[in-house]
Design a protein that fits this description.
Blueprint lengths: L3 E12 L2 E12 L3 E5 L6 H9 L6 E6 L2 E2 L5 H7 L1 E3 L12 H12 L4 H14 L15 H14 L4 E5 L7 H16 L3 E5 L3 H7 L2 E6 L2 E6 L1 H6 L1 H9 L3
Parallel strand pairs: 3-8, 3-9, 6-7, 7-8
Antiparallel strand pairs: 1-2, 1-4, 4-5, 9-10
The structure holds adenosine-5'-triphosphate and magnesium ion.
The site of magnesium ion has 3 residues, from α1.
Length: about 240
Amino acid sequence: MPVAILEGTSLSKRFGALRVLRSVSLSVAAGEILGVVGPNGAGKTTLFGVLAGALRPTEGRVLLNGDDVTAANAARRCRLGIARTHQVPRPFLGMSVFENVLAAAAFGGGLAGQAAQEGAAEALHRSGLVDCANRPAASLGLLDRKRLELARALATRPRVLLLDEIGGGLTEAELDVLVGLVRDLKQDGMTIVWIEHILHALLRAIDRLVCMAEGGVIAEGEPRAVMADETVMRAYLGGVA
Ligand SMILES: Nc1ncnc2c1ncn2[C@@H]1O[C@H](COP(=O)(O)OP(=O)(O)OP(=O)(O)O)[C@@H](O)[C@H]1O
Ligand SMILES: [Mg+2]
């Protein structure tokens, strides 16, 4: 059994009367790429919030390398090696693209001086944003803001990278580049959890797949077997208005 680097045990999250996560347990092995799919509103982004520390679970625990980090906030977890991209990008609008990434390298990655500058430059390069480095973040369109989310996450030098629908809106050629990047990051030893609706891209990158619906995990395992699972197909058809 491979070592779990990130683990959620019986995670539940309620917003008032709404039960958004219902006892979700998830184990991510060191070095694996885990895909997460599920219809809109399944609770995928909420799960990332709980794993990354932006949201406190109502019940359950989050373990990083076997250590309980449930009480640690997002900044602390980032320093411990968990980084995420946001489905709705959140750059510092008043800063340049480079400054945004530099801030991530410094505050999230704990780098200073030359090392922070180099870390930021590399993250920009990997995310395809070098040409935008000196532009104000506020001037970026949605796709470049998504690239900036990725650059900021990479600049923190994560051990575990949580990607939330980073492929939406990309062209086929851009998706190829993204899949290549995810594979490269795995080669570098990074562990990745990737929420994505663009299945054909996801399936080219992942080792294992989890499907969520209505706040729970309804199937997990070998990616194509999960997609062929009857419960999974029903969940998707049920999601069509
Ligand atoms: N802060 C919040 N307060 C109240 N309800 C919330 C909050 N955040 C999410 N929800 C609700 O929780 C449910 C799950 O939302 P979540 O964003 O986790 O789904 P998702 O699987 O990421 O969906 P999508 O594929 O559309 O991104 C939705 O019904 C959503 O409206
Ligand atoms: Mg979401």
